Amino acid sequence: MSSSSLDQCMLPLRAIPGGYGVPFFGPIKDRYDYFYNQGEDEFFKTRIAKYKSTIFRTNMPPGPFISSNSKVVTVLDSKSFPILFDISKVEKRNILDGTYMPSTAFFGGYRVCAFLDPSEPNHRVLKSFCMNFLFSSRDKFIPYMRTSLSEMFSKLEGEISDGLQADFNVHSDNMAFDFFFRLFTGVSPSETDLKSRGPGITSTWLVLQLAPIMSLGLKYVPNFIDDLIHTFRLPFCVTKSGYKKFYKAVYNSATSLLDEAEKTGINREEACHNIIFLIGFSAFGGMKVVFPALIKWVASAGESLHNRLVDEIRSVVKEEGGVTFSALEKMSLVKSVVYEAFRIEPPVPYQYAKAKEDLVIESHDARFEIKKGETIFGFQTFATKDPKVFDNPDVFIADRFVGDGEKLLKYVYWSNARETDNPTLDDKQCAGKDLVVLCSRMMLVEFFLRYDTFTVEVGKLPLGSSVKITSFTKAS
Questions:
Q1: Residues of the chain with pLDDT under 50
Q2: How many of the other CB atoms lie within 10 Å of CB of 84?
Q3: What structural domains and CATH numbers belong to the chain?
Q4: Taking Cα atoms as reference points, which of 108, 107, 109 lies closest to residue 97?
Q5: Which of 358, 376, 370 is nearest to 71 (CA)?
Q6: What is the Cβ-side half-sphere exposure of residue 47, based on CA atoms within 13 angstroms?
Q7: CA-CA distance, 255 to 311, in Å (whole number)?
Q8: Which InterPro entries does this one have (predicted)?
Q9: What tens digit of pLDDT does each residue of 253-302 get?
Q10: How far apart are CA 127 and CA 91, in angstroms?
Q11: What are the Cα distances from residue 68, in Å, to 30, 151, 206, 231, 262?
């Protein structure tokens, strides 16, 4: 018998603690605890303490009237969390956002690839289309990103020089939208009917879909008013005209990419809606959280880290003769900083799946039985701060993954898989995982090629962090 099998047999089999409360009212109570009475982190911490377990039963938002079944088995440690990636045991059909699915009106009437389970034939076709495009476009990543970043920093500097705080989120959103739109279509959004409206249109489209699992965070708005977005779906018609502009811009610009889609048997219209989802939800939506979080954590680490990043980045770029894939791979501290930002604040904090069969899963302390059809929920922010894996898990440690620390990368779950895994056609790992990492490294590299240090003010937004640049010290 292997040591892992022996360990499993030694762990006690325990009934999953927790419960769902009275029908209808139980989910609403848990929803109020989650958003208002306790807040997200405290919601999970109190239940871990109460049940003395990182695996327990609870309801997850939104509940009535949006979700017909809010019951989940919650997994909050690094050992149990990977069950959510095992598509031989769990199903990922229509469960991307949680215990509800937005109307397909948001996607032109199609179930786009993100909502398909790998067992569905169309999943493989659509993911292959995406992965092939990314592979064929790899030579554009660095030059396109450098151009977009250069424009962003010029605008940030303009605000600072006028004696103002620079709103990093606004400029970062504009930069990210410009980069991904140009990558997929070959033209700048400013050359289409979108003009400069793309980020605003896309942000509205995102919020309407995700409102059931987010809080507006408005200080003087009573909870029962805020809770209306968790009770009733927000209609697509609010963003219908904007989405039409987005669709038209992509359809008219990405002609060669749409031609390729048709050659692989994908309906041209369906391909266009999938491209919009990739640009707007997967890429732009992800980067709305990733870039501000990265800058926030690097700023919080202070000038000593900034000096180390300056030394590494500038010396490697000089040695390599420019910003290249090879240069980026040699920047061990830059790589570690990006992974640490993903660990401490995963861009997509929630994972959901349904058990395909009766399962036994393990925490560090016990085994638990999950029945076929039960929904499993994982909060990545707890799994990637597991104190049994990471020392000082709540602290941002910039060089955590340097040298021997690289061995811990298998416990960094941010892309719907382990960081050490690579996406395939038959899993749900983010197809653009490596591009997200590359863009994040590029953000740091371009930042510290221009500046020696900087300061920020940080706040909270419904999606991620608010970051305002208060000062730059230009490169000496």
A1: 1-6
A2: 25
A3: 3-474 (1.10.630.10)
A4: 107
A5: 376
A6: 27
A7: 44
A8: Cyt_P450, Cyt_P450_sf
A9: 999 999 999 999 999 999 999 999 999 999 999 999 999 999 999 999 99
A10: 17
A11: 15, 46, 22, 11, 37
